[in-house]
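Backbone-to-sequence.
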């Protein structure tokens, strides 16, 4: 009979290190998921769903965008204005435009956004008349208008495009926008797109009860804590998670760790809360 071999221990016999909750954010995503414990709530409550205020209106911009294309990904995106009285469906010509729109719409100073604005007429280097449509026109709560020319980074580096962008800027300011910028995929990481998309989705469903419980829990928050810990302080489970997500974007909570916001993201109370 062969002797039974003892299982090989991790770390050459060293004890397995157990990380406290405040260090859980340093673990890989898959490992964090395996360590997650379910939230305990007192009762099952559905998220309050507000009644539709108005049928979304399609915004086509200065020119219509065909949803058929072999060279880029067309998409439609629903967004509501900052006062939440009306929703609009924007048609976008590429996934890069869609990602940029999500990030811009999640900004705390977001008031409105327009797509395919124009045309803006300008003179080329050879003196010929030409026109250009601005991909995104962002309007903040102070009324400032920022025009974004959204292009892949490789195309944005080309000399011919830079010349066109400079002439569009001269023609668009101040008639169409107060500022013109070039926006590429290098200006934001993919995790920002994920966070912005989730925030906009959660914002469509207000939950005053969970938000009030979060405010009470934040008053007792000392230093930084994981989102998971704050959720358990409220007793509202996933409803509190969504409230925390919105609080981070609205500036009520400060995020201390980067990447995609999850249960192990570190947050702390802002001085103004």
């Amino acid at each position: 009979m062969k002797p039974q071999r003892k299982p090989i221990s991790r770390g050459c016999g060293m004890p397995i290190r157990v990380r406290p909750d405040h260090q859980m954010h340093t673990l890989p995503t898959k490992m964090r998921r395996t360590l997650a414990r379910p939230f305990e709530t007192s009762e099952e409550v559905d998220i309050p769903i507000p009644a539709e205020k108005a049928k979304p209106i399609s915004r086509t911009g200065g020119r219509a965008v065909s949803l058929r294309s072999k060279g880029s990904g067309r998409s439609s995106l629903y967004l509501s204005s900052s006062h939440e009285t009306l929703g609009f469906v924007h048609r976008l010509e590429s996934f890069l435009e869609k990602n940029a729109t999500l990030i811009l719409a999640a900004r705390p100073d977001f008031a409105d956004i327009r797509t395919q604005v124009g045309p803006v007429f300008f003179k080329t280097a050879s003196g010929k008349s030409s026109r250009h449509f601005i991909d995104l026109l962002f309007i903040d709560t102070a009324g400032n208008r920022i025009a974004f020319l959204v292009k892949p980074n490789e195309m944005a580096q080309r000399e011919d495009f830079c010349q066109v962008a400079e002439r569009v800027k001269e023609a668009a300011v101040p008639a169409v926008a107060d500022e013109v910028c070039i926006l590429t995929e290098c200006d934001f990481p993919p995790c920002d797109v994920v966070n912005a998309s989730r925030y906009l989705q959660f914002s469509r469903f207000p939950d005053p009860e969970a938000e009030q419980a979060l405010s009470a829990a934040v008053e007792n928050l000392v230093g930084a804590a994981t989102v998971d810990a704050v959720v358990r302080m409220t007793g509202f489970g996933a409803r509190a998670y969504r409230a925390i997500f919105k609080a981070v974007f609205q500036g009520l909570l400060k995020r201390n760790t980067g990447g995609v916001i999850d249960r192990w993201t570190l947050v702390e109370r802002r001085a103004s809360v």
